[in-house]
Specification:
Layout (H helix, E strand, L loop, with lengths): L1 H75 L4
Length: about 80
């Protein structure tokens, strides 16, 4: 009976080590998931910044084009 109890405790100790390994891996996977989530948010932030800069550039370019067209129209009509 003592041998059976010792065997049971040995198996329980090995199972505890296996569970600890799985918990360690799960903890590391959770950390990796958090890092990937942060990188994903940073990517969207960067994409938003580049998108905003692109819209700003397009707006400035269109503004210059329209200003040039209006100036040519103004000068062409002899209003100046």
């Amino acid at each position: 009976m003592v041998g059976l109890m010792a065997r049971f405790l040995d198996v329980a100790c090995k199972l505890e080590k296996v569970v600890a390994i799985f918990l360690g891996v799960a903890c590391k996977l959770e950390l990796v998931e958090e890092v990937l989530d942060a990188a994903y948010r940073l990517e969207w932030l960067a994409l938003g910044c580049w998108s905003g800069l692109a819209w700003l550039w397009l707006g400035l370019w269109l503004g210059v084009v329209w200003a040039g067209l209006l100036a040519r129209l103004w000068l062409g009509l002899g209003l100046c």
